[in-house]
UniProtKB/TrEMBL annotation:
<feature type="domain" description="Nudix hydrolase">
    <location>
        <begin position="23"/>
        <end position="154"/>
    </location>
</feature>
<dbReference type="InterPro" id="IPR015797">
    <property type="entry name" value="NUDIX_hydrolase-like_dom_sf"/>
</dbReference>
<dbReference type="GO" id="GO:0010945">
    <property type="term" value="F:coenzyme A diphosphatase activity"/>
</dbReference>
<keyword id="KW-0464">Manganese</keyword>
<keyword id="KW-0460">Magnesium</keyword>
<dbReference type="GO" id="GO:0046872">
    <property type="term" value="F:metal ion binding"/>
</dbReference>
<protein>
    <submittedName>
        <fullName>Coenzyme A pyrophosphatase</fullName>
    </submittedName>
</protein>
<keyword id="KW-0378">Hydrolase</keyword>
<dbReference type="Pfam" id="PF00293">
    <property type="entry name" value="NUDIX"/>
</dbReference>
<dbReference type="InterPro" id="IPR045121">
    <property type="entry name" value="CoAse"/>
</dbReference>
<dbReference type="InterPro" id="IPR000086">
    <property type="entry name" value="NUDIX_hydrolase_dom"/>
</dbReference>
<keyword id="KW-0479">Metal-binding</keyword>
C-alpha cells in the first residue's frame, strides 16, 4: 500500500470511540415535566419481571435499533413506548454528555420536556411505577458518592509467557463512582443518578 492511499484513508476516517462497533449502544431521556408552578424530573420504576435491574429507578430509554435515525430519535421512541404518550408531547430535546461504561456500553443521554396534562399509560411489562421529583430538590443538594473498585482477572488461558513480568504483571486497576440520591424512600442511583448529577451541574 502506497503512502497516498494510507493518507487518504486516514483523512476519510471519522474518529469515534475505539472498538465502538462492539459496544452496546443505548439512548435515554431525562424527562422534565411542569407541575403547578415548578419543573419536576420524571422517573420510572422498572418492572419486577424485567430480566435486567428489576425494581430499579431509571429514565426512559433502551437499545438503539437499526431503524432509529440517531440516538435522539431512539430516546424519544423509547419514551413514547414506555410512558404511553405520543411523540408530539415531547419537545425541546437536546443531547447531554454521553457515557462510555467499563462494561462495553455507550449511553447517549438527552434532556427534554414532556408537555401533557393527560394520564400516562405506561407499558406495564417494563414500567411498574412513574413518579416525579421537584428539580429544586436536586439543585439544592449534592449526591452521595461511593467508590466501587474494579480488578483485573485474566482468563485461565491468558498467555502470561508473552507479556513482561508474566503472572506478576502489574495490571492497572481503577474504580467507578456510584452516585446516590434519596427522595422520600426512593433510591436513585447508578447511571441514572450519574446522568442526573451531570444535568444538575449544567443547570448550576
Amino acid at each position: 500500500m502506497d503512502l497516498e492511499s494510507i493518507t487518504n484513508k486516514i483523512k476519510d476516517h471519522t474518529p469515534a470511540v475505539l472498538g465502538h462497533k462492539q459496544f452496546m449502544k443505548s439512548a435515554v431521556l431525562l424527562p422534565l415535566i411542569q407541575k403547578t408552578d415548578e419543573l419536576h424530573v420524571l422517573f420510572e420504576v422498572r418492572s419486577e419481571t424485567m430480566r435486567r435491574q428489576p425494581g430499579e429507578i431509571c429514565f426512559p430509554g433502551g437499545r438503539i435499533d437499526p431503524q432509529d435515525k440517531d440516538p435522539q430519535s431512539a430516546a424519544i421512541r423509547e419514551t413514547t413506548e414506555e410512558l404511553g404518550i405520543s411523540e408530539t408531547k415531547i419537545s425541546d430535546v437536546s443531547p447531554l454528555d454521553y457515557l462510555v461504561t467499563p462494561f462495553g456500553m455507550i449511553v447517549y443521554t438527552h434532556a427534554g420536556l414532556i408537555n401533557t396534562d393527560e394520564q400516562f399509560n405506561p407499558n406495564l411489562s417494563e414500567v411498574e411505577e412513574i413518579f416525579t421529583v421537584p428539580l429544586s430538590f436536586f439543585l439544592e443538594r449534592d449526591p452521595e458518592i461511593y467508590h466501587v473498585n474494579l480488578q483485573v482477572k485474566p482468563d485461565k488461558t491468558f498467555p502470561f509467557d508473552l507479556v513482561p513480568g508474566g503472572e506478576n504483571y502489574n495490571w492497572r486497576t481503577s474504580h467507578i463512582d456510584e452516585y446516590f440520591y434519596i427522595y422520600g424512600g426512593k433510591v436513585i442511583w447508578g447511571l441514572t443518578a450519574r446522568i442526573l448529577a451531570h444535568f444538575v451541574e449544567l443547570m448550576r
